[in-house]
């Protein structure tokens, strides 16, 4: 069986789509999957079971990336085509069955819309794929038996970013004597490039030898293994937040007053802390340390899922 799965450009949306892929892998264990995604999201699928290959779609002028995809897949017959980009492309292919996401933004959680595409209620939770080599790498990066807290102080734009000094204060409060994560160390994660490095730099400088710098230094499967090894993730609305939730690690997402209903983390143990105010302002400065600390403590106090 041959399945073409056309998914997102961004890491977060790509991670959210892994629940559908996991459902299809379980339903058709002998199928061979071809995944089409954006360059940033390629690593999400690198360890995926049943993957024949990945087609990286870099956006081009005049939508020429669709022509490139046609050259790769247009002459083949497909048993199933799933198009989460809401394009007409799937209808140009020879396919026995098609699932095509409706275009444009829809109100409500993204994961529910993804599940509804295949009539799945409740929707399947995202998964994170990594292998033994990634686990071994994570064990080297986060050594010892003591707990680690993963922090994601970066995002793809600055209006999503909680102030660095509050990340530092939150970490210190969570690791103080008497806290469940007393004495924990910090793994600081972020994407590649100078902008993300600059966002993380004040947190790294303040925490000194209590933190390890992983910003832009590891692959997405290695990041998934690092997150799975962590006792808690706290971070801005980002692809890393969604990846953490997919691993099953307790994940606290920090949000401004907009889009949390659509992009709250989806996983077995997740929570959000939301800045008050008007969505038009979209400011993270209103999210207080006390709010985030209460949300983190509440998340850690939750019983493990059955």
UniProtKB/TrEMBL annotation:
CDD domains: GT9_LPS_heptosyltransferase. It comes from the Bacteria. One of its GO terms (biological process) is lipopolysaccharide core region biosynthetic process. Pfam families: Glyco_transf_9. One of its GO terms (cellular component) is cytosol. InterPro entries: Glyco_trans_9, LPS_LOS_Heptosyltrfase. Keywords: Glycosyltransferase, Transferase. GO terms for molecular function: ADP-heptose-lipopolysaccharide heptosyltransferase activity. The keyword Transmembrane does not apply. Coiled coil: none annotated. PANTHER family: ADP-HEPTOSE--LPS HEPTOSYLTRANSFERASE 2, TETRAACYLDISACCHARIDE 4'-KINASE-RELATED. This is ADP-heptose:LPS heptosyltransferase.
């Amino acid at each position: 069986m041959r399945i073409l799965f056309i998914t997102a450009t961004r890491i977060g949306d790509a991670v959210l789509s892994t629940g559908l892929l996991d459902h299809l892998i379980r339903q058709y264990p002998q199928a061979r999957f071809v995944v089409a995604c954006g360059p940033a999201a390629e690593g999400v699928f690198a360890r995926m079971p049943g993957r024949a290959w990945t087609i990286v779609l870099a956006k081009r002028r005049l939508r020429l990336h669709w022509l490139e995809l046609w050259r790769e897949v247009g002459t083949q017959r497909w048993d199933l085509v799933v198009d989460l980009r809401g394009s007409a492309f799937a209808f140009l292919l020879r396919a026995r069955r098609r699932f095509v996401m409706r275009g444009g933004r829809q109100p409500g959680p993204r994961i529910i819309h993804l599940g509804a595409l295949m009539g799945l209620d409740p929707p399947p939770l995202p998964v994170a794929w990594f292998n033994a080599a990634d686990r071994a790498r994570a064990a080297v990066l986060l050594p010892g038996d003591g707990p680690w807290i993963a922090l994601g102080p970066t995002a793809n734009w600055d209006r999503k970013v909680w102030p660095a000094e509050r990340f530092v204060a939150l970490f210190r409060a969570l690791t103080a004597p008497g806290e469940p994560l007393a004495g924990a160390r910090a793994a600081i994660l972020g994407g590649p490039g100078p902008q993300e490095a600059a966002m993380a730099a004040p947190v790294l400088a303040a925490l000194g030898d209590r933190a390890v710098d992983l910003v832009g230094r590891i692959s997405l499967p290695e990041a998934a293994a690092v997150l799975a090894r962590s006792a808690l993730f706290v971070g801005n609305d980002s692809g890393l937040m969604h990846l953490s939730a997919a691993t099953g690690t307790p994940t606290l997402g920090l949000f401004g007053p907009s889009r949390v209903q659509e992009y709250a983390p989806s996983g077995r143990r997740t929570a959000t802390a939301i800045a008050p105010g008007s969505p038009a302002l979209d400011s993270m400065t209103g999210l207080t340390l006390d709010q985030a600390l209460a949300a983190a403590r509440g998340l850690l106090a939750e019983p493990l899922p059955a």
